[in-house]
Automatic annotation (TrEMBL):
This is Cell surface glycoprotein MUC18 isoform X5. The chain crosses the membrane at residues 535-558. Residues 1-25 form the signal peptide. The gene is mcamb. It comes from Salmo salar (Atlantic salmon). Residues 25-138, 147-250, 256-335, 346-424, 431-513 form the Ig-like domain. PANTHER family: CELL SURFACE GLYCOPROTEIN MUC18 (PTHR11973:SF18), CELL SURFACE GLYCOPROTEIN MUC18-RELATED (PTHR11973). It holds the Pfam family V-set. Keywords: Disulfide bond, Glycoprotein, Immunoglobulin domain, Membrane, Repeat, Signal, Transmembrane, Transmembrane helix.
Length: 608
């Protein structure tokens, strides 16, 4: 009995110890709620666990939850083996790092696809310690291509009752599905009955990616002609959200004309007679309607809605009316502008054309021109300004005041508006001969001499030539104007003569003389004093040189003994002298003269 009791107590204590161990033995698994990864990248799902009893004898199993909510195992392993289930979705693309004897295992999924977006379970079996499991959701993301926006090419009328299509926006190959929002300028557009309609079409491609197309329909108003429309595409990425905007587009809005603007496009500013005028007309509607132009109640033809008026005059002044016809409502809209043409009449000269005044008198001339604008007058003579203002005054007239005076009338405020007139002034009086060359001239008879005589006066002087020898005047030519004359005479001067230039008109005669002296040419002339002195000096030098040479020759013959000359007597000079030169020699000791011939023979005194 006692033995049974001891056995029962032992079994009880053993069972109690097992129960105590079972109560304290425990397995705990910790995992992230979700792991996010881009399409095509590698995903890693970590499973961390703790086992309180026998951690070396742990079995790890990985499961996935299919789209139909079926639990399928994809991996089995412990401290001695690792097995990937065959024939499944992840057979060739997963691996597990860590074994059952470690406290962490990592499931690695390569080249993640859209269909890999599933829930994964890590089951840890600690045998006597029990088991536990954790879950992680794998999320896959794909950024869409750059969105494309297209606008309606045809115009949109504001008179349409129903919203018209503005454009279309498309975002391709995104995951999860991208969202598209429309904007007008900086304001987003939402569905509004009768005003804004946004139609969205979502397409799932065979790759599992989404393509989203959004069409905007809008009841446009006139101010939309200046508005810009664009799309904003928002899409999810690991850890957040991104947005991409499209290009901005503008639409063509058709709206009726309510007013017209009419203006003179060319020329800018004031218009003067002779100009070509371009009148433009523009409506505030779109498109521009056809225009009709009226000028002083007369319809005029226009090209490309532009009225061209050529060579306008002051008669072109008046209203120009532009009329636009709306082809939808057949309503007319009017606009007008005023055309004013400035003018400048031809000048009026008093006196006009020509005028004759006597020497010493006074002339007062006026120049005026009618104009629509203030004018300014300047007088010119030979291109130089001589007076300013409408009046030209010439006092105490002289011949220098004669000539053509040009009157120029301008409108300073309008370039190109200018007119001119001219006045020819003659100063009446006795001729006046302008000063010529020196009246006394020496002339060679070899060629004719030209003489000129320039006289002025009014009436035009008549010039005649006279001479002390009329036969020497060869030819006379002259050129004359209304109050001046230039006469040129050609004279053959063979002897001294005097030529006379005579200028005469109704008021008298004046003359001028030219004294011409003929230059006499001689064939020879006596040398000058300086030339004679030079010749004499040259002759003396030559004689001295000849004497020096002769003395040298005689001295040489004497040294050679060719000249036997005694000191105490005279040589025989009776022999004939064969030489051509006889020299008289005198001794130093005696005054006896000896004649020597060039060949050394002595000459007698009688032959000297």
């Amino acid at each position: 009995m006692a033995l049974r009791m001891k056995s029962s107590m032992f079994v009880g204590l053993f069972l109690l110890s097992l129960a105590w161990k079972a109560a304290w033995a425990k397995v705990q698994v910790n995992m992230e709620d979700r792991v996010e990864v881009f399409l095509g990248d590698t995903a890693q799902i970590t499973c961390m666990f703790t086992v309180s009893d026998s951690p070396d004898n742990v079995i790890i199993q990985w499961y996935m939850i299919t789209k139909t909510n079926v639990r399928l195992r994809i991996y089995y392993g412990n401290s001695t083996m690792q097995v990937v289930d065959r024939g499944g979705q992840f057979t060739d693309k997963i691996s597990v790092n860590g074994k059952g004897n470690s406290s962490e295992v990592v499931l690695t999924i390569r080249d993640v696809k859209v269909e890999d977006e599933l829930e994964f379970i890590c089951h840890v079996n600690g045998m006597t310690a029990g088991s536990d499991e954790g879950r992680t959701m794998l999320k896959v993301f794909a950024s869409p291509d750059r969105p494309i926006i297209t606008g309606e090419e045809s115009g949109i009328s504001v008179s349409n009752e129903n919203p018209s299509k503005i454009g279309s926006c498309e975002a391709k190959n995104g995951y999860p599905r991208p969202n598209i929002t429309w904007y007008r300028d900086q304001s987003s557009l939402q569905n509004t009955p009768g005003e804004v309609i946004v139609v969205t079409l979502v397409t799932k491609e065979s790759s599992g990616l989404y393509t989203v197309q959004s069409d905007l329909h809008l009841n446009v108003v006139k101010k939309d002609k200046d508005s810009f429309f664009y799309c904003e595409v928002s899409y999810l990425v690991p850890g957040g959200t991104k947005m991409t905007e499209t290009n901005k587009i503008n639409i063509t809005v058709y709206y009726p004309t309510t007013s017209l603007d009419v203006w003179v496009e060319s020329p800018k500013g004031s218009v003067k007679e002779g100009d070509t005028v371009e009148v433009h007309c523009r409506a505030d509607g779109n498109p521009q309607p056809p225009f009709t132009f009226m000028h002083n109640m007369e319809e005029l033809k226009s090209e490309l809605n532009v009225l061209v008026l050529k060579d306008v005059t002051r008669q072109s002044n008046g209203n120009i009316t532009c009329t636009a016809l709306d082809l939808d409502t057949y309503e007319e809209t009017l606009g007008q502008t005023e055309l004013f043409v400035d003018y400048l009449d031809p000048v009026v000269l008093i006196p006009k054309d020509t005028h004759v005044i006597a020497q010493g008198e006074e002339l007062m001339a006026t120049c005026n021109a009618q104009s629509s604008l203030p004018t300014h007058t300047v007088w010119f003579k030979k291109g130089k300004k001589v007076a300013e203002g409408h009046t030209l005054t010439l006092k105490d007239a002289v011949f220098d005041m004669a000539g053509t005076y040009v009157c120029v009338v301008k409108v300073p405020s309008l370039e190109g508006l200018e007119t001119t007139g001219s006045l020819r002034v003659f100063v009446q009086g006795r001729p006046e001969i302008k000063k010529s060359a020196d009246p006394v001239q020496e002339v060679s008879p070899e060629k004719p001499q030209k003489l000129s005589c320039h006289a002025r006066g009014y009436p035009t002087p008549v010039i005649t030539w006279s001479s002390s020898d009329e036969s020497q005047i060869l030819k006379v030519s002259q050129r004359e104007t209304e109050d001046e004359v230039l006469s040129v005479v050609s004279v053959k001067v063979t002897s001294d003569i005097t030529a006379y230039c005579n200028a005469s008109n109704d008021h008298g005669t004046v003359s001028i003389s030219f004294n011409l002296k003929a230059i006499v040419q001689t064939t020879s002339s006596a040398p000058s004093t300086s030339e004679g002195s030079g010749v004499i000096i040259a002759v003396i030098i030559i004689c001295i040189l000849l004497l020096a040479i002769l003395g040298s020759v005689l001295y040489f013959l004497y040294k050679k003994g060719k000249l036997p000359c005694g000191r105490s007597g005279k040589q025989d000079l009776t022999k004939p002298n064969k030489g051509g030169i006889v020299v008289e020699m005198k001794s130093d000791n005696t005054e006896e003269a000896v004649l020597l011939s060039v060949n050394g023979d002595k000459k007698p005194p009688s032959d000297q």
